[in-house]
Amino acid sequence: MDLVPALEEPLKKVLGPATAKVMAEHLGLHTVGDLLHHYPRRYEERGQLTHLADLPMDEHVTVVAQVADARLHSFASAKAPRGKGQRLEVTITDGSGRLQLVFFGSGVHKPHKELLPGTRAMFAGKVSVFNRRLQLAHPAYELLRADTEESVETWAGALIPLYPATAKLESWKIGKAIQTVLPNAQEAVDPLPDSLRDGRGLVSLPEALVKIHRPHTKADIADARTRLKWDEAFVLQVALARRRHADAQLPAVPRRPAPDGLLTAFDARLPFTLTEGQQKVSKEIFDDLATDHPMHRLLQGEVGSGKTMVALRAMLAVVDAGGQAAMLAPTEVLAQQHHRSIVEMMGDLAEGGMLGGSEQATKVVLLTGSMGMAARRQALLDLVTGEAGIVIGTHALIEDKVQFHDLGLVVVDEQHRFGVEQRDALRGKGRQPPHLLVMTATPIPRTVAMTVFGDLETSVLDQLPAGRSPIASHVVPAADKPHFLARAWERVREEVEGGHQAYVVCPRIGDDVDEPGDPKKPGKAKQKSPEDEAEKRPPLAVLDIAEQLRGGPLHGIEVEVLHGRMPPDDKDAVMRRFAAGETGVLVATTVIEVGVNVPNATAMVIMDADRFGVSQLHQLRGRVGRGSAPGLCLLVSEMPEASAARQRLNAVAATLDGFELSRIDLEQRREGDVLGQAQSGARTSLRVLAVIEDEEVIAEAREEAASVVAADPELSAYPGLRTALAALLDEDREQYLEKG
Questions:
Q1: What's the rounded Cα separation, in Å, for the pair 560 and 493?
Q2: E strand or H helix at 664
Q3: Cα 303–Cα 305–Cα 307 angle in degrees, nearest 5
Q4: Cβ 536 vs Cβ 529: under 8 Å
């Protein structure tokens, strides 16, 4: 069906090429429909004023305020040596605070005439600091006059929409452009089925678009937002429901473990019993594996909750049933770690075809990009003949050369680092679609899981296995209290002298090549605000810190470094020495973030901890306390106490609950990041839906979507819904959802 012509009209035809160009380049808006869906960020009442006290630094803001006073000063400068330079300083107020505006040179004449004390106006500009006071330099402004036809009451009570704007296009110019295209809203085709809309008392889409851009009352805004949230939640959930439905139609080989096979032999040797959580989740997985359509399951759990054990038992079950299992890890370090720990856990069950191997045994091979030719050739041969039941590798597994005898299960570790294309390429290696188990070590709030991984069934592990020790976390304010940092190094020395080991994590490597994955490149650290001295210097580096520690506070202790640009053999050797207890302290980048398991490591110091995200800190912290001795994690930061970065660190120190932290993380970032990663990097489709706040809407939309798709998978009765899906799933997304 054709998309709605009125809403597909290019903006350059309607608004003129110059405005359309700015909208396309800076706001990603190309059509009338895009512009109608560019909703106000908030609303000001003309009678009320913005909170000047709460202005964010370095952001482009629009404020509604009243001029308190205006003064013209003369000054001498290079351009105006005889004291002829002019500067207009205008102070505006809103009751909560005051803000200084400055205009220079010939730009002072118009505002000097117009911005008289008592005048109200909207002002837009970038907030900066001058002489320790907030100011807007050369702001654009729009006077708010009571037009003759409007009575003063209606004028003062009118709601002014303030739009997400840019320096090139102020909020009120966007508002005027929207007024131009608003009549076209009547032609918007409604994606919601009538029964759903009527059943929930939602206004129609054209009405919602008019009310969100030209509300007369706050109730209008509430009606519009409720309706538009439903649109976003429902269309996204329909896309996911259709994918679940399509997956359920695919054939797969059921994989049931043999009664006295590999899995039984493995379980019999386990030196511990599985937690209740592990048993429950394993049952869910085994039930899925026994069906004749592919399993699509997300296994998420706390750091250290034993996900690898659950995944390994699923892989053994598939090998038992005559198939092969592949585990994809995001890095070589992690692939090697998994390979080593799985071979250790399996013992002689991993020695298939070898002397001394158990009769139920299979072969467990490693396949990474940096392996030598001979080892690689042997691994490929073992896969194609079926000799190897289990393969663990990086994306090297996906290359065309890799052929499987009978791929039955794909386990993807650390989902958020794997592109959908990669998962798809590996799934294509089976004669029929293999079963898929996706593991994520960053716990995801339920709503995010429903929104991002809505096509996967979810299993959650929230118990820690017996024998895991608690981790104490503390923030070390290095700038305010330098003696705290000295004490941190003493604590590390105490742990090492007590027979344990420690990690020190830094944000960058330190050989001054531009480093991918750096939160901020050295020397280009952005200044967030004048107080944040800590932000001005480059992030601390592994190589520098290792040198300082060897020569200073950790003198005499074996200190090694590990980072992503070392040759793979060197990385592996460093990890082996650390795992064997030969190294006291490992100074590393985030290559140790996931999966690294050294039970004897009890302490971790994270330098410049404010440069890492909440979930990353939680992941890193999970590397200690993995044995019987308690863990200690010290978050070192030079950020001032009142800063948002320090509050984030305090939150991490205050709880070990990854689900709670992921909520905090999500509230601080925008969901766009979360959805952007999952949805092929295409711009997030969520404009009014907040994943955390709108839990109920998402859950209800998921149910509604499932029943609509079950009754009519092709959506032939819902042309409006098909149109909305086509817009949501532009080509990238469509492929993304098909690939999974």
A1: 15
A2: helix 658-668
A3: 95
A4: no
